[in-house]
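Weekly structure sync, notes
Attendees: PL (lead), two postdocs, one rotation student
Agenda item 3: pending single-chain targets
PL asked that the sequence for the first pending target be pasted directly into the notes so everyone works from the same version. It is reproduced below exactly as submitted, 202 residues in total.
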Amino acid sequence: YNILKEDKLALVILISNKKELHDMDNNLLDRFSKSNIDLNRVVFINKLEHHQLMTMYQHSDVVLDSYFFGGDTTTREAFEIGAPIITLPDRYLGSRWTQAYYKLMGINDLIAKDANEYVKLAVKVANNKDYSNSIRNKILNAKSILFRSENATPAWENMLIKINKLSKKIKGKGKGKEISKDNKYLNMSYHTNNLMEKERLL
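Predicted structure, written out during the meeting:
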Protein backbone atom coordinates (compact mmCIF):
# COMPACT_ATOMS: atom_id res chain seq x y z
CA TYR A 1 0.00 0.00 0.00
CA ASN A 2 2.69 2.49 1.00
CA ILE A 3 4.74 1.83 -2.13
CA LEU A 4 1.72 2.64 -4.32
CA LYS A 5 1.01 5.67 -2.15
CA GLU A 6 4.57 7.03 -2.36
CA ASP A 7 5.04 6.25 -6.06
CA LYS A 8 2.04 7.49 -8.04
CA LEU A 9 3.27 5.73 -11.20
CA ALA A 10 3.91 2.36 -9.57
CA LEU A 11 2.28 -0.77 -10.93
CA VAL A 12 2.57 -4.00 -8.93
CA ILE A 13 2.69 -7.32 -10.81
CA LEU A 14 1.85 -10.50 -8.91
CA ILE A 15 1.84 -14.14 -10.02
CA SER A 16 -1.61 -15.71 -9.85
CA ASN A 17 -1.92 -18.76 -7.58
CA LYS A 18 -5.48 -19.86 -8.33
CA LYS A 19 -4.50 -23.41 -9.29
CA GLU A 20 -2.24 -24.14 -6.31
CA LEU A 21 -3.50 -21.93 -3.49
CA HIS A 22 -7.15 -21.59 -4.49
CA ASP A 23 -8.50 -18.52 -2.66
CA MET A 24 -5.18 -16.71 -2.16
CA ASP A 25 -5.72 -14.28 -5.05
CA ASN A 26 -9.24 -13.42 -3.88
CA ASN A 27 -8.06 -13.03 -0.27
CA LEU A 28 -5.33 -10.64 -1.40
CA LEU A 29 -7.76 -8.62 -3.50
CA ASP A 30 -10.13 -8.43 -0.56
CA ARG A 31 -7.34 -7.15 1.71
CA PHE A 32 -6.21 -4.67 -0.93
CA SER A 33 -9.76 -3.39 -1.32
CA LYS A 34 -10.21 -2.95 2.43
CA SER A 35 -6.92 -1.00 2.51
CA ASN A 36 -8.23 1.35 -0.22
CA ILE A 37 -5.59 0.21 -2.71
CA ASP A 38 -6.30 1.12 -6.32
CA LEU A 39 -6.86 -2.33 -7.83
CA ASN A 40 -6.18 -0.94 -11.30
CA ARG A 41 -2.54 -0.68 -10.23
CA VAL A 42 -2.28 -4.35 -9.13
CA VAL A 43 -2.00 -6.89 -11.93
CA PHE A 44 -2.19 -10.66 -11.59
CA ILE A 45 -0.52 -12.67 -14.34
CA ASN A 46 -0.33 -16.41 -14.93
CA LYS A 47 2.86 -18.32 -14.18
CA LEU A 48 5.47 -17.70 -16.85
CA GLU A 49 7.85 -19.92 -18.77
CA HIS A 50 11.41 -19.48 -17.53
CA HIS A 51 12.53 -17.30 -20.45
CA GLN A 52 9.43 -15.12 -20.03
CA LEU A 53 10.10 -14.72 -16.31
CA MET A 54 13.70 -13.68 -16.98
CA THR A 55 12.46 -11.13 -19.50
CA MET A 56 10.05 -9.71 -16.94
CA TYR A 57 12.90 -9.36 -14.41
CA GLN A 58 14.93 -7.62 -17.11
CA HIS A 59 12.22 -5.03 -17.71
CA SER A 60 11.02 -4.53 -14.12
CA ASP A 61 12.22 -1.36 -12.39
CA VAL A 62 12.46 -3.15 -9.07
CA VAL A 63 11.73 -6.64 -7.69
CA LEU A 64 10.08 -6.95 -4.27
CA ASP A 65 11.15 -9.88 -2.11
CA SER A 66 7.95 -11.20 -0.55
CA TYR A 67 7.61 -10.99 3.24
CA PHE A 68 7.92 -13.02 5.35
CA PHE A 69 8.72 -15.94 3.03
CA GLY A 70 11.07 -14.60 0.40
CA GLY A 71 12.83 -15.75 -2.72
CA ASP A 72 15.55 -18.38 -3.11
CA THR A 73 15.67 -19.83 -6.63
CA THR A 74 13.71 -16.83 -7.93
CA THR A 75 16.24 -14.50 -6.27
CA ARG A 76 19.16 -16.21 -7.99
CA GLU A 77 17.34 -16.04 -11.31
CA ALA A 78 16.72 -12.31 -10.89
CA PHE A 79 20.35 -11.72 -9.93
CA GLU A 80 21.49 -13.55 -13.08
CA ILE A 81 20.33 -10.57 -15.15
CA GLY A 82 21.15 -7.95 -12.49
CA ALA A 83 17.62 -7.20 -11.28
CA PRO A 84 17.62 -5.18 -8.03
CA ILE A 85 15.63 -6.88 -5.25
CA ILE A 86 14.41 -5.14 -2.10
CA THR A 87 14.42 -7.55 0.84
CA LEU A 88 13.33 -7.36 4.47
CA PRO A 89 14.80 -10.36 6.32
CA ASP A 90 12.90 -11.77 9.27
CA ARG A 91 14.15 -14.12 11.97
CA TYR A 92 13.72 -17.43 10.21
CA LEU A 93 15.33 -19.12 7.22
CA GLY A 94 12.59 -18.61 4.62
CA SER A 95 12.94 -14.83 4.73
CA ARG A 96 16.74 -14.64 4.72
CA TRP A 97 17.89 -16.14 1.42
CA THR A 98 18.03 -12.88 -0.51
CA GLN A 99 19.92 -11.20 2.32
CA ALA A 100 22.37 -14.14 2.35
CA TYR A 101 23.03 -13.81 -1.39
CA TYR A 102 23.53 -10.07 -1.08
CA LYS A 103 26.00 -10.56 1.77
CA LEU A 104 27.96 -13.14 -0.22
CA MET A 105 28.22 -10.61 -3.05
CA GLY A 106 29.21 -7.84 -0.64
CA ILE A 107 26.12 -5.76 -1.46
CA ASN A 108 24.08 -4.37 1.45
CA ASP A 109 22.31 -1.45 -0.23
CA LEU A 110 18.88 -3.07 -0.63
CA ILE A 111 18.61 -4.98 2.65
CA ALA A 112 15.92 -3.08 4.55
CA LYS A 113 15.97 -2.77 8.33
CA ASP A 114 12.20 -2.29 8.66
CA ALA A 115 9.02 -1.88 6.63
CA ASN A 116 9.46 1.88 6.19
CA GLU A 117 12.95 1.46 4.75
CA TYR A 118 11.64 -1.32 2.48
CA VAL A 119 9.18 1.17 0.97
CA LYS A 120 11.78 3.95 0.64
CA LEU A 121 14.28 1.65 -1.07
CA ALA A 122 11.65 0.32 -3.49
CA VAL A 123 10.57 3.83 -4.51
CA LYS A 124 14.19 5.02 -4.78
CA VAL A 125 15.30 2.16 -7.03
CA ALA A 126 12.20 2.45 -9.23
CA ASN A 127 12.59 6.19 -9.80
CA ASN A 128 16.32 6.95 -9.59
CA LYS A 129 17.78 5.42 -12.76
CA ASP A 130 21.39 6.31 -11.95
CA TYR A 131 21.11 4.62 -8.57
CA SER A 132 19.29 1.64 -10.08
CA ASN A 133 21.94 1.21 -12.76
CA SER A 134 24.74 1.34 -10.19
CA ILE A 135 23.06 -1.44 -8.18
CA ARG A 136 22.47 -3.50 -11.31
CA ASN A 137 26.14 -3.21 -12.24
CA LYS A 138 27.19 -4.24 -8.71
CA ILE A 139 25.02 -7.35 -8.94
CA LEU A 140 26.23 -8.26 -12.43
CA ASN A 141 29.87 -7.85 -11.41
CA ALA A 142 29.46 -9.99 -8.26
CA LYS A 143 26.88 -12.61 -9.27
CA SER A 144 29.48 -15.25 -10.19
CA ILE A 145 30.11 -15.69 -6.45
CA LEU A 146 26.66 -17.29 -6.14
CA PHE A 147 27.16 -20.00 -8.74
CA ARG A 148 29.33 -23.13 -8.70
CA SER A 149 30.69 -22.22 -5.28
CA GLU A 150 32.95 -24.83 -3.69
CA ASN A 151 32.35 -23.36 -0.24
CA ALA A 152 28.59 -23.97 0.03
CA THR A 153 28.64 -27.75 0.59
CA PRO A 154 31.22 -27.78 3.44
CA ALA A 155 29.51 -24.77 5.04
CA TRP A 156 26.16 -26.61 5.15
CA GLU A 157 27.93 -29.77 6.35
CA ASN A 158 29.61 -27.91 9.23
CA MET A 159 26.38 -26.19 10.19
CA LEU A 160 24.33 -29.42 10.23
CA ILE A 161 26.97 -31.24 12.31
CA LYS A 162 26.92 -28.39 14.83
CA ILE A 163 23.10 -28.47 14.95
CA ASN A 164 23.19 -32.21 15.64
CA LYS A 165 25.64 -31.69 18.50
CA LEU A 166 23.57 -28.80 19.81
CA SER A 167 20.36 -30.85 19.77
CA LYS A 168 22.05 -33.55 21.86
CA LYS A 169 23.26 -30.91 24.30
CA ILE A 170 19.77 -29.42 24.65
CA LYS A 171 18.28 -32.89 25.16
CA GLY A 172 20.92 -33.57 27.81
CA LYS A 173 20.01 -30.42 29.70
CA GLY A 174 16.40 -31.53 29.74
CA LYS A 175 17.03 -34.77 31.64
CA GLY A 176 15.13 -34.89 34.88
CA LYS A 177 12.99 -31.87 34.09
CA GLU A 178 10.27 -30.98 31.66
CA ILE A 179 11.06 -28.77 28.65
CA SER A 180 8.07 -27.81 26.54
CA LYS A 181 8.08 -28.52 22.81
CA ASP A 182 7.80 -24.77 22.20
CA ASN A 183 10.90 -24.02 24.25
CA LYS A 184 12.86 -26.78 22.50
CA TYR A 185 11.82 -25.37 19.14
CA LEU A 186 12.68 -21.78 20.08
CA ASN A 187 16.07 -22.83 21.47
CA MET A 188 16.92 -24.78 18.33
CA SER A 189 15.66 -22.02 16.01
CA TYR A 190 17.69 -19.36 17.80
CA HIS A 191 20.92 -21.39 17.81
CA THR A 192 20.39 -22.65 14.26
CA ASN A 193 20.12 -19.11 12.91
CA ASN A 194 23.26 -18.10 14.82
CA LEU A 195 25.18 -21.05 13.38
CA MET A 196 24.01 -20.34 9.86
CA GLU A 197 25.12 -16.72 10.16
CA LYS A 198 28.56 -17.85 11.36
CA GLU A 199 28.88 -20.19 8.39
CA ARG A 200 27.82 -17.28 6.14
CA LEU A 201 24.74 -19.16 5.00
CA LEU A 202 22.38 -16.37 6.10
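Discussion points:
- The chain is about 55% helix and 5% strand.
- The radius of gyration is 20 Å.
Action: rotation student to compare against the earlier draft before next sync.
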